[in-house]
Write a structure and sequence with these properties.
This protein is α/β, with parallel strands linked by helices. Helices cover 24% and strands 30% of the residues. The protein has two domains: 62 residues, VC0802-like (2-Layer Sandwich), CATH 3.30.2130; 160 residues, Rossmann fold.
């Protein structure tokens, strides 16, 4: 970075006390202090990439024109008023289609780790009645949907309220260790109808991707007769699993 401009980009997976912007700021300031390079948000000559998988980090640098970006294979053109709340909304729509899960009027869904509300919004707009569980707030747009009820608490608090069920679908996009996410769902399975389904994203906290999937399945798999796995266009960094036919 001999006097050239640069920009820092950070992609992160795992649970941290800092955010991606904190990393970008810290690395940018360090590089400005130790090299002749100048941080530039606009059109930098170089890109500095930081990839973090929980406790591991990789850093690389290339000319901005040489950076390779993977293109999503689905169109992202939306009619006015139909733009998704966030990428999570697209992930769930793809998962429902990939696993052939019918969601519509009469469907009752329990969405764990719901905030800010991408999955909840997708379920409600498909016609489902949704109980969104998260101590954090939903976006006003989602909270105002008539089919959405927000439970401002943690999943385990529902155990004392069995009358909340039964549900046709249990979903989770929690940004937690896969085994922890699965364990949080396990005690709630009695709220799921025997013919209900579970859809969960497995977050890759390390490079041991297959191990993370197996950890989640070791917790939930024995409680179901079938499970399927898919890598979908809008969650290429995760695996989505679907479990059906609960063993009562």
């Amino acid at each position: 970075l001999s006097g050239d401009t640069f920009r820092v980009e950070c992609k992160r997976r795992g649970e941290h006390a800092f955010g991606s912007r904190d990393v970008q700021r810290a690395v940018g300031l360090r590089l400005e202090g130790e090299t002749p390079g100048v941080f530039d948000f606009g059109a930098p000559a170089y890109l500095v990439h930081v990839e973090i998988f929980q406790d591991w980090a990789w850093i690389g640098c290339c000319a901005a024109g040489e950076a390779v970006h993977k293109s999503i294979t689905r169109m992202r053109i939306h009619a006015p008023g139909e733009r998704p709340l966030n990428r999570a909304e697209k992930k769930l729509r793809e998962a429902l289609a990939a696993f052939g899960l019918a969601v519509g009027p009469g469907t009752r869904a329990l969405d764990l780790g719901a905030a800010p509300g991408g999955w909840t919004k997708a379920l409600a707009e498909a016609g489902a009645e949704v109980l969104a569980v998260d101590p954090a707030e939903l976006t006003p747009e989602v909270a105002a949907l008539p089919a959405v009820t927000h439970f401002r608490g943690h999943a385990e608090e529902l155990l004392s309220q069995p009358d909340r069920g039964p549900f046709d679908l249990l979903t989770s996009d929690m940004n937690r260790d896969p085994a922890e996410s699965a364990s949080a769902m396990l005690p709630l399975l009695p709220l799921l109808k025997p013919d209900g389904s579970v859809v969960m994203t497995v977050k890759f906290m390390t490079l041991r991707r297959r191990q993370h999937v197996e950890e989640a399945l070791s917790v939930l798999g024995p409680r179901f007769q079938e499970h399927r796995e898919r890598r979908l266009p809008h969650n290429a960094r995760e695996t989505t699993i679907c479990l059906t036919r609960r063993i009562v």
